[in-house]
Design a protein that fits this description.
It is a single chain. The chain has a single domain, classed as Ribokinase (UDP-N-acetylmuramoyl-L-alanine:D-glutamate ligase). 34% of the residues lie in helices and 23% in strands. It is built from nine helices and 13 strands. Strands 5-4-1-8-9-10-11-12-13 form a nine-stranded mixed beta sheet, with helices on both faces. The longest helix is centred in the C-terminal third of the chain and has 15 residues. The chain is globular, with a radius of gyration of 18 Å. The model has no long low-confidence stretch (mean pLDDT 93).
Length: 316
């Protein structure tokens, strides 16, 4: 069985610097890279590298960047059959700056991602027969995301909503989500609740429950995450690593969660696994290039003595 991802496909222009320039200031950076990215493509890559079949539904332009992105996805064994080539828009671009702490700022130009429409979704879903999980974000048009979620529910698929970025969120998507996985910024944007710790995370989870989503994973950055299931909850602690690049960590988490659910694990076990995948991702540069393989994750869990982050362990 497979995972289907509907979302963005971008080329990331990544600038590494010791510090961010102040407004109006010019400084010298250290390095620039042109890397495959986009939240949808990142998540599809994570699923594939973790050993699952995955369909990518998205849009790119008729340009060299689009060619490079297709090549990268295929290299990770992502099914690119349902990726559209836009006749009017160029491939999406993210301009990313990363400082010495591995934190990032990002400016995203949607480009061809805006050309992914409902008819593209309907055509793809008519051909996809064996997918169990749909994974969506909010970097493509809202009506496109909603249509994908509707069709997934009709097919009995489990729908994971990663409500990112905050600027693209639509509350209507909650009507079709089986689980939502917001970070602090996204939770505040949707609910007005600033998640500073477990208590405020639980407040957010209960608010989502009242809005119709019984399951949630409230991500708290260096404080870990809170997994909430119909009134029951568990705190998942963070895993300390030496951070290099935080871009794509949330996408690695989402892809790993989709893999766990496809394998029949509950969301607590899935969150332990996803936390390990996300932690390992931040140790490497590149939203997609830094995503670990399943063998790397298993080795990491073993080296760190993390008994609850390996889906092959009976202790999960």
């Amino acid at each position: 069985m497979s995972v289907t991802v509907v979302g963005s496909i971008n080329i990331d222009t990544v600038a590494l610097t010791d510090k961010y320039p102040e407004r109006g200031q010019t400084i010298f950076g250290n390095k620039i890279e042109y890397l495959p990215g986009g939240k949808g493509a990142n998540q599809a890559t994570a699923v594939a590298r973790l050993g699952k079949e995955v369909n990518m539904i998205g849009a790119i332009g008729h340009d060299l960047y689009g060619d490079k992105l297709i090549e990268s996805l295929q290299g990770s064994k992502v099914n690119t059959r349902f990726i559209k080539r836009s006749d009017s828009l160029s491939t999406g671009t993210a301009i990313i700056t990363i400082d010495h702490t591995a934190e990032n700022t990002m400016l995203v130009l949607k480009g061809a991602n805006e050309d992914l429409n409902k008819s593209d979704i309907e055509s793809a879903f008519n051909q996809i027969k064996d997918s169990e999980v749909l994974l969506v974000q909010m970097e493509v048009p809202q009506e496109t995301v909603i249509r994908a979620m509707q069709l997934a529910k009709e097919k009995g698929m489990y729908v994971i909503l990663d409500p990112a970025p905050a600027e693209g969120i639509t509350i209507k998507a909650l009507d079709y989500a089986d689980i939502i996985t917001p970070n602090r910024q996204e939770t505040y944007h949707m609910l007005g609740i600033d998640v500073l710790g477990i208590d405020s995370a639980l407040e957010a989870a209960k608010t989502f429950e009242n809005m119709g989503v019984k399951n949630s994973i409230i991500k708290m950055g260096d404080k870990g995450s809170v997994v909430y299931q119909s009134g029951n909850w568990e705190h998942i602690p963070p895993i300390a690593v030496k951070a290099v690049d935080s871009v794509g960590a949330g996408d690695a988490f989402a892809g790993a969660l989709a893999c766990a659910i496809t394998d029949g694990f509950d969301i607590v076990s899935g969150s332990h696994f996803a936390t390990a995948v996300g932690a390992l991702k931040v140790t490497k540069l590149g939203a997609q290039m830094g995503i670990p393989t399943i063998d790397e994750v298993e080795a990491f869990c073993s080296e760190q003595g993390l008994k609850h982050c390996n889906l092959n362990e009976s202790t999960v």
